[in-house]
């Protein structure tokens, strides 16, 4: 028989109280009699009787003692194994393998310290004839050693545990640790499953993180150093938590978030910009710029540091780092990259720090709306792309299309007048439905399009409900655009092949019949990227509505999708490329990711799901598929993978849901019936004896 709550035996203290009551109870009794004669007669009669009163009192005391003892015994929740032999005692060891466990001081990491202490505990357990189970709480909780016991189990236990702290020859880090967050919740779930098999098991968690509400888990804090060896020196951490770059007044401003955990200290934050351009380097020059800021850090307070005086308008990369001899060096730096670089094809001579996009706007009369939009795009996408644009007339473009000028544009915008042949070396936006200005308005050869007559609805009252546009197929091209906000008075009838998707319609009534004319169509395939706007801004209110900048922004994103949406990622993130129509249509059919040289992996299935499993600088290479006549370009972009910010905080408190220790198989119900019957019987006897004294 065993007890679940052995502290229930404290109820036996009631026996002491009972004894004290009897010891302090007065021995005399006050009785009233009618006369002295009767008193003498009663005393004479009492001498002749047996001493029944003393025996009754003895039985009453015995009953009261048994009542208190049974009640205390019931509080302990006793159980009897229901015909099942209880397994031998077992120790479940959970080892935290998170990034913070790689903190080092005195030549030993927290993880090594945890494994060594676990080896000592496990060896003693097995030598005592018990069993040991080990769970490694890495990015996924893994039961690396289930129930080892005996001589063979001890050998296996030591071999597995020693392998965890064996150093990787490349990283010089323990093989069992990593730069991720530990799956403590998963370890708790595994532990609960194991406790169902052995309710007598003890659970130990080796960690350096403070745990809130650990329940019945034994927490072994390995962050505490041996004071005899290291004295009062505590582990501490200086961390660069985040760095952001923002273009303000044509110059980059850098904001750094940094902190010191477990120590008040003054530190220097350094920033180095590589291949930078701007007044800080010298006009027309490219070079490296270094600046530093000294800052006082208070324990556990995040400090925001701004580098506002640095005057650079472009850079290849920026390295931010802190000078500190702390216990955890893996978060002491942060990298920011400006964008992509070209190589291969016709762009070898145009190496850029951001992906270069050249736009050619061809029109006999430049619209102030498109001119302003191009300027706005240049500034809005400055951190991502190096956008430049030129404005030409159709007379100028004739020489270009005849091959006299070099092919070097990524986006062509033709307004009013159409080229004889569709350009094949970049994306194209055709804007028709306006005046011809004496040039051809026929659809370009090679586009597959047919431009028919113009339908003029300016005779109707303006605005009129029939002038509003209507939505077509959903697409990123019309993301956040409300067609009912666009009023059109004149449009051209367009006939398009199946490769074109219609995203906006004009509802028209012609010859007494309802017609739905496509007025915005997009073809976005590896062979061609063409958008058709079958109405001119001159005959609509698009140019003065919020939909116009959104329209241009969306068009740029589907024709020129970015490789990476962010510059920095946490380890364990998954990079997913499926956010644009261009990617879905496999404009980028092949992507190669270089993790740690020479390690690399190739992806060619849409959507791209790219895991990030190591910290540091990585690069992603994509092979761009352009139109006919232009070689594929290779675009390379670097990105930085950091340690999760939670692992930098040495003072954090982790909330967990401890496993529920299951109740053992027992005969609770039968035991409590017996205890209840015994308690009832004793109470009944005690009452009978007390009542007999009164007769």
How would you describe this structure to a colleague?
The chain has 695 residues and is of the alpha/beta class. The protein folds into 5 domains: 2-77 and 668-689, no CATH class; 90-234, Rossmann fold (3-Layer(aba) Sandwich), CATH 3.40.50; 237-338, Immunoglobulin-like (Sandwich), CATH 2.60.40.10; 345-559, Class I glutamine amidotransferase (GATase) domain (Rossmann fold); 568-648, Immunoglobulin-like, CATH 2.60.40. The chain is 24% helix and 33% strand. The strands form 10 sheets. An 8-stranded mixed sheet has the order 20-19-21-22-28-27-26-24. Strands 18, 29, 31, 32, 34 and 35 form a 6-stranded mixed sheet that branches. Strands 7-6-3-8-10 form a 5-stranded mixed sheet, with helices on both faces. A hairpin with a 2-residue loop joins β4 (104-105) and β5. Residues 342-353, 578-589 and 625-632 have low confidence and may be disordered.
Task: Summarize this structure briefly.
The chain is of the alpha/beta class. The protein is built from 13 helices and 36 strands.
Strand order of the largest sheet: 20-19-21-22-28-27-26-24
Q: Number of domains in the coordinates?
A: 5
Low-pLDDT stretches are 342-353, 578-589, 625-632
Binned strand content: 25-35%
Helical region count? 13
User: Whole-Å distance between the termini?
Assistant: 44 Å
* Number of beta strands: 36
What is the structural class?
alpha/beta
Q: Which descriptor suits the 3D outline?
A: elongated
Mean pLDDT figure = 79
